[in-house]
Write a structure and sequence with these properties.
With about 140 residues, this protein is an all-alpha fold. The chain has five helices and no strands. Helix 1 crosses helix 3 and helix 2 runs antiparallel to helix 3. Bound molecules: magnesium ion (MG).
Length: about 140
Amino acid sequence: MLRHQAAKMIRFVSAAGERILVVLQNLYLVRMTDIQDIAQALREFSNARDWDQFHNPKDLALAISIEAGELLEQFLWKDPADADPDRIKQELADVFSFAILLANKYNWDVKKIVLDKLQETELKYPVEKAKGTAKKYNEL
Ligand SMILES: [Mg+2]
């Protein structure tokens, strides 16, 4: 009897797990489509202004760094709780925009390069060594 109940429970958990996986995969696909939509909107914005001529890899990388500086400026000399979320949002959007433009310049798939890098990072920071610590991988 217990064996039958255990088998039934395992089937139930397995089915629930599969349903959760499908939901997560769908959410993931929606997000990746969103990135492609953003890239298209950025290209249209840039093309309408003939700005692609200025968007070489060096200047896009500089723009990412400058916008990241503007993001940091929102926190400068403040308690993080006092930083203006609207200004943070604006600067973060600038960072994302130039990062996506740079990826496009090299014809890189944002999804692929981020997930490839995450896979490399997972190897550097195995959960059993990195969980709960901010140490760099070479100090784990
Ligand atoms: Mg800015």
